[in-house]
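Explain this one:

_____
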Amino acid sequence: MGTGWVILNNKDEVILECNSSITDWPSSTRAELGAILSAILVLQTGQKANIITDSQAAIDSINHTRTNLTNGKNKTRTWCKCNNYSIVSSIINLIDSKQLEIKLVKVKGHSGVKGNEEADRVAKNNTKKPTCINIKDS
């Protein structure tokens, strides 16, 4: 299953794009989380970014898990209840360690939002030149 993301400048021009694929237990949520993770990897320490996605499930997974961990909920229980915990934990750890200010924004899929449409295009082209980030479940 293909994933993709783009970074747009202030003129809504694509300045960077990336594609990859999710091979183990592919799902649309896992693909969106993989795209969010790989986008966060390229951000510089202390950077602010809006991440636009058409996956409310991906946003909820990150926000719910982060809230539970921040509010002192049992960490083991929180991670055991988290779907796609390997990707979600990597996202949360990167946000914290790189001191990023991330805003997750939900948009309707296939609704003409430029960044989202470009990301979909990049994801569909993953068979041409896939980039691999291998995250093993522990």
